[in-house]
Design brief:
Blueprint: H1 3-7, H2 29-57, H3 61-85, H4 92-99, H5 102-134, H6 138-146, H7 164-178, H8 181-206, H9 230-241, H10 247-252, H11 261-290, H12 301-308, H13 312-346, H14 365-381, H15 384-410, H16 436-439, H17 446-467, H18 474-495, H19 513-527, H20 531-555, H21 557-567
Helix pairs in contact: 2-5, 2-8, 2-9, 2-11, 2-13, 3-9, 3-11, 3-15, 3-19, 4-5, 4-15, 5-7, 5-13, 5-14, 5-15, 5-20, 7-13, 7-14, 8-11, 8-13, 9-19, 12-13, 13-14, 15-19, 15-20, 17-18, 17-19
Length: 572
């Protein structure tokens, strides 16, 4: 096989092989939905809210949450379809592998473990910050006095002090998760129920301190009180808030352990997102109506806000709820992380050691141990804000790829799985398509791939033009026009393809418009991420590609399948 063929070979499922697994199928709809809810509550409310309100969006965080929630919902349609079709542990990785080929699957798969590792590390540090705040900074003071500082620079990449409490906490959580999937799900459901009760209390009690003047007029810095950092801050806040919505992707990693994944994954996806969007907006409103945005504590926003209002009992309840919610988040993240690694290892793209499933617990124990230790080290030494900034890019890339994969899935020449007994016209061009005679000469499937990649490129041009604020000169206007024309013509070409008739228990409605809209939302938020975030991401990606070309491309399960097929004697 040529290198080119190897890079773009696609993962194949034959018959019901996508349902077979060494993992135990024991989770129902509520188990899976609560995995997502638990993973999103801790991250979005207790880690991000204070930081985004204080430094990026102010009270307009409610708009940031709505924007990122809407974008997540658009991506959720695509996740639900793939989760119903291919219920495997790898989520976005598996979907990209099936639709776009091995190299794209690896790129997405390599970002997913990083996404969970950083998410776990950020939440673990926030857990310690809340506990430290509850005990009047005794933990941080003790560590600094007896061990010393890691960094004395504000806003640096390293934390002020080594967080040994968060380190130990992650180890304990991983032990609980390693016991078994059903045990993890039951533990998670208990925390979710407790946390939702606390959130309802916090919202109602916090609104008793509501001061609506904090949302109107001009503050002492000459800024609009509701939107102090303008629309650029709102969009940047939405990009950061995407960290809060990685929970429904954690849900899709449970596809290999759901009892009836074809039904469970779509229902759990939309149910969890609906609950979370309502909770985020309510909590953001409550916080920003209590105290001015510039007085919000970025690390322990709600407990500090209640303390400022003299509500000591509410502060204690809030802190306990925050600790339970973030512990909830840690359980679900620790559940999803080793399964995303297991999926890649099981396919042979990373070391097979991580594909081992323990015979007693039926969990990927090796992946759990190694990646928990790596995450614990991240937690020990890195700064919370630096971790959060790095996280969203992996989430947005995964969501973008899944939306693009739905377009490819629907307009391929044939269904990607062997579920129909007849050939249809999927992938063929409709009669009205301009230059049909020339486009039809391309190899099968190339025209839809060209259309999708051109659509993404057009979106990038539009987003860069807006981000760089160059619309006040002729060059910027021309560039914007090029992006708009390229995007519209690409979308028209996608519509000009016949959709295949493959059956599925759930399909994204209004294709190609919903995936295309999800793509532009994700691309805009990626462009608005900070430059250093992109640099760090490129370094991580380079490490992954080194592993893939040194190991994965030769040990891929798909490569072995092709070799076996080619070695079989021809039937006479």
């Amino acid at each position: 096989m040529t290198i080119w063929t190897s890079l773009f070979r696609r993962k194949q499922f034959r018959g019901d092989t996508h349902l077979t697994s060494e993992l135990k199928r024991c989770l129902n709809v509520f188990d899976v939905m609560f995995i997502a809810v638990g993973h999103m509550i801790g991250a979005g409310i207790y880690v991000l809210t204070g930081q985004v309100v204080h430094s990026e969006a102010g009270p307009a965080i409610i708009i940031s949450f709505l924007l990122s929630g809407f974008a997540a919902l658009l991506s959720a349609f695509s996740y639900a379809e793939f989760g119903a079709r291919f219920p495997r542990a790898g989520s976005a990785y598996t979907y990209s592998y099936v639709a776009m080929g091995e190299i794209w699957g690896f790129i997405v798969g390599w970002t997913v473990p990083l996404e969970y590792m950083i998410g776990l590390a950020a939440v673990a540090r926030a857990w310690t910050a809340y506990l430290d705040n509850l005990v009047n900074k005794r933990i941080s003071t003790f560590i600094i006095d007896n061990i010393g500082h890691l960094s004395t620079t504000e806003g640096g990449f390293f934390a002020k002090y080594p967080d040994f409490v968060a380190f130990i906490l992650l180890i304990l959580v991983s032990i609980a998760v390693a016991i078994g999937s059903k045990f993890s799900a039951n533990l998670n459901s208990s925390f979710v129920t407790l946390n939702i009760a606390v959130i309802i209390f916090v919202v109602i009690y916090g609104l008793t301190f509501a001061d609506f003047s904090l949302w109107s007029g001009i503050d002492e810095f000459g800024r609009d009180r509701f939107m102090p950092y303008g629309w650029a801050g709102v969009i940047q806040g939405a990009a950061s808030c995407f960290f809060a919505f990685i929970g429904f992707e954690a849900l899709s990693t449970a596809g290999e352990e759901a009892r009836n994944p074809h039904r469970t994954i779509p229902l759990a996806t939309f149910g969890s997102l609906s609950i979370i969007i309502v909770l985020y907006v309510a909590m953001g409103s409550s916080l920003t109506l209590m105290i001015p945005y510039n007085q919000v504590d970025p690390e322990a926003a709600f407990s500090a806000a209640f303390e400022a209002k003299g509500a000591t009992v509410a502060k204690i309840i809030m802190s306990i709820g925050a600790l339970a919610g973030m512990l909830n988040n840690l359980v679900t993240g620790a559940f999803a992380l080793p399964r995303s690694v297991y999926a890649m290892a099981d396919d042979g793209l990373i070391f097979g050691f991580f594909a081992k499933v323990n015979s007693k617990t039926k969990t990927p124990l090796n992946a759990t141990i190694v990646f928990t230790l790596l995450t614990a080290i991240l937690t020990l030494i890195f700064d919370l804000n630096a971790l959060v900034e790095f996280l969203s890019i992996g989430t947005l890339l995964a969501y973008s790829m899944v939306s693009a994969c739905v377009l490819l899935l629907r307009y391929q020449a044939e269904p990607l799985e062997e579920e129909s007994q007849h050939k249809d016209n999927g992938g063929q061009l409709k009669s009205w398509v301009p230059f049909k005679a020339y486009i039809s000469k391309l190899p099968a499937g190339y025209s839809i791939k060209l259309a999708v990649f051109s659509l993404i490129f057009g979106y990038v041009i539009i987003a860069l033009t807006v981000r760089l604020q160059i619309l006040d000169n002729i060059g910027g206007i021309v560039l914007l026009a090029v992006g708009v024309i390229l995007s519209l013509s690409s979308l028209i070409l996608i519509i000009g393809h016949e959709e295949n008739q493959a059956k599925a228990t759930y399909k994204v409605p209004f294709v190609p418009f919903i995936p295309a809209l999800g793509l532009i939302c994700n691309v805009f938020m990626m462009i608005y991420l900070k430059f250093m975030t992109w640099i760090r991401f490129i370094v991580w990606l380079a490490i992954g590609l080194f592993i893939y070309f040194g190991y994965g491309i030769r040990h891929s399960k798909e490569a072995r399948s092709v070799k076996i097929e080619n070695s079989k004697p021809e039937q006479k």
